[in-house]
Automatic annotation (TrEMBL):
<dbReference type="InterPro" id="IPR005798">
    <property type="entry name" value="Cyt_b/b6_C"/>
</dbReference>
<dbReference type="GO" id="GO:0009055">
    <property type="term" value="F:electron transfer activity"/>
</dbReference>
<feature type="transmembrane region" description="Helical">
    <location>
        <begin position="52"/>
        <end position="75"/>
    </location>
</feature>
<keyword id="KW-0408">Iron</keyword>
<dbReference type="GO" id="GO:0046872">
    <property type="term" value="F:metal ion binding"/>
</dbReference>
<feature type="transmembrane region" description="Helical">
    <location>
        <begin position="261"/>
        <end position="278"/>
    </location>
</feature>
<keyword id="KW-0479">Metal-binding</keyword>
<feature type="domain" description="Cytochrome b/b6 C-terminal region profile">
    <location>
        <begin position="232"/>
        <end position="311"/>
    </location>
</feature>
<dbReference type="Pfam" id="PF00032">
    <property type="entry name" value="Cytochrom_B_C"/>
</dbReference>
<feature type="transmembrane region" description="Helical">
    <location>
        <begin position="95"/>
        <end position="115"/>
    </location>
</feature>
<feature type="transmembrane region" description="Helical">
    <location>
        <begin position="384"/>
        <end position="404"/>
    </location>
</feature>
<keyword id="KW-0349">Heme</keyword>
<feature type="transmembrane region" description="Helical">
    <location>
        <begin position="124"/>
        <end position="143"/>
    </location>
</feature>
<dbReference type="GO" id="GO:0016491">
    <property type="term" value="F:oxidoreductase activity"/>
</dbReference>
<dbReference type="InterPro" id="IPR027387">
    <property type="entry name" value="Cytb/b6-like_sf"/>
</dbReference>
<feature type="transmembrane region" description="Helical">
    <location>
        <begin position="298"/>
        <end position="321"/>
    </location>
</feature>
<protein>
    <submittedName>
        <fullName>Cytochrome b6-f complex subunit 4</fullName>
    </submittedName>
</protein>
Length: 454
């Protein structure tokens, strides 16, 4: 008997209920489409056919799939609706590679910005929701995917991803609407919704209803999903992989590319200070109190780049793709504790002295004085130190003289330098990641004698 079956009777029945819920959702969308979307002039030889007919056919297919799941009498290993290896294997190859994973996330982010007008159409949004739910349902036929996604710790993160997707879509929809209104000289959407209501009873009743619904949801959640309590902590038996809470997984992933003092102290501090500094360095008075994109392109793109590919992307990576020994695994790949990936990482000083100059790496000896040892260390790490200083000191003036010239003229020297360094610190993460993948570069500056590495 297979201890890890891709499909069981319970899984098949559970997916049947999921397809049934999806079908009911699309019944409502079919009615909406019939009322709003009109007709095709000609579709496959049929003239004046309602566009809702396509949604009706899709809904009927979902109902048939749900009935097939709920009424099946065949053995689970013979059930025909499952994800095949010819699809799973290429996805594992692409997703389990950090270069292709982040390359894909950057490509999706660029597509989100470039195609925001098209993506925020209601029909396109509904199609994307259906595709994501269908992909999740079909993927649940894989045992390894189901163990990762169905883990009680990870279920709320799956819900988080859907919420992030929805609210990002909602922002762009409202922003696109206001951008069009501004171009046409019409009042903003928020100005048309300025009707005031009383705190009592309107707001209080609404909050009370939300509180009751949320309480009921949490009670149902607590009954349906068991709390992931494990055995008492033991120094001789640690989890593999040992993961931080989901909201710290981004920081834990940064530890792969930065020294702990940098990933755990410097960068989080810069993030917090940067968030506090934004109101004081922002010179753009537009976009306050209403959704927009065209009035605040730089701010929106910068924030979303840091939030979606760099933060949410690393949470996805740390939650679903980092397995035993912190190796990367595909979503349908078995988490094998014996998987070993050889990493031949080198420091910048190794490349400079050993590979380029063909000389041994300078190292202080026990006979050297403190002053001479310091000189040897600084000489050894001079390439990295100069590179870091040039990155932080030379790039801001270059930015002020080129692509950010208008920003420098409006912000002045001090505010611009704060902005430039915040942008450079944010850019240091993808740059360091790319350097690790492309050149196996571990540290730009490596001074283990002083416990100082960059």
């Amino acid at each position: 008997m297979n201890p890890h079956p891709d499909l069981t009777t319970d899984v098949i029945r559970g997916l049947g209920w999921m397809y049934l819920v999806l079908a009911v959702m699309n019944v409502g969308w079919t009615v909406r489409s019939y009322q709003r979307d009109g007709y095709f002039e000609s579709f496959m030889g049929i003239r004046h056919m309602p566009k809702a007919a396509l949604w009706a056919v899709y809904t009927a297919i979902l109902l048939l799939i749900a009935v097939a799941h709920l009424t099946t009498t065949a053995a689970a290993d013979e059930f025909f609706l499952r994800l095949v290896s010819s699809i799973k294997d290429p996805i594992d190859v692409v997703v389990a590679n950090p270069i292709s994973f982040f390359g894909l996330s950057i490509a999706l982010f660029v597509a989100l910005i470039m195609l925001r007008e098209w993506l925020t159409r209601p029909t396109v949004g509904w199609v994307l929701l259906n595709l994501s739910l269908l992909a999740t349902a079909v993927s649940m036929t894989d045992y390894d995917f189901r163990q990762i996604v169905g883990k009680p710790d990870n279920v709320p993160i799956v819900g988080l991803l859907f919420l992030v997707g929805y609210f990002t879509w909602l922002y762009f929809r409202k922003a696109n609407d206001n951008d069009r209104r501004l171009e046409q000289g019409k009042p903003l959407h928020e100005e048309e919704l300025n009707e005031q209501v009383l705190v009592w009873p309107d707001l209080v009743y609404t909050e009370m209803i939300c509180m009751l619904l949320l309480t009921a949801l949490l009670i149902f959640w607590g009954v349906a999903l068991q709390a992931p309590l494990e055995e008492p902590a033991s120094a001789v038996k640690t989890p593999n992989p040992s993961k931080a809470p989901w909201y710290f997984l981004g920081l834990q992933e940064m530890l792969v590319y930065f020294d702990p003092w940098m990933a755990g102290v410097v960068l989080p501090t810069v993030i917090l200070l940067g968030l506090m500094a934004i109101p004081y360095i922002d010179f753009n008075k537009k976009g306050n109190g209403y959704y927009c994109f065209n009035d605040r392109k730089f701010a929106v793109i910068t924030f979303l780049f840091g939030f979606l590919p760099l933060w949410i992307g690393m949470i996805i990576l740390g939650t679903f793709l980092r397995g035993p020994n912190w190796n990367m695994f595909g979503p349908y790949e078995y988490w094998d504790v014996h998987k070993l990936e050889l990493l031949n990482n080198n420091n910048l000083s190794d490349y400079f002295w050993t590979d380029l100059l063909r000389q041994p790496l300078p190292r202080p000896t026990a006979d050297d004085t403190v002053l001479s040892a310091t000189g040897i260390i600084l000489t050894r790490e001079a390439p990295g130190i100069l590179l870091v200083l040039g990155y932080l000191l030379l790039l801001p003036p270059l930015m002020a003289a080129t692509v950010f010239r208008s920003f420098f003229a409006k912000m002045g020297f001090l505010r611009f330098m704060v902005l430039a360094n915040l942008v450079l610190f944010m850019a240091s993460l993808p740059l360091k990641m790319a350097a690790r993948w492309a050149f196996q570069l571990k540290y730009i500056v490596a001074i283990p004698e002083w416990f100082f590495n960059i």
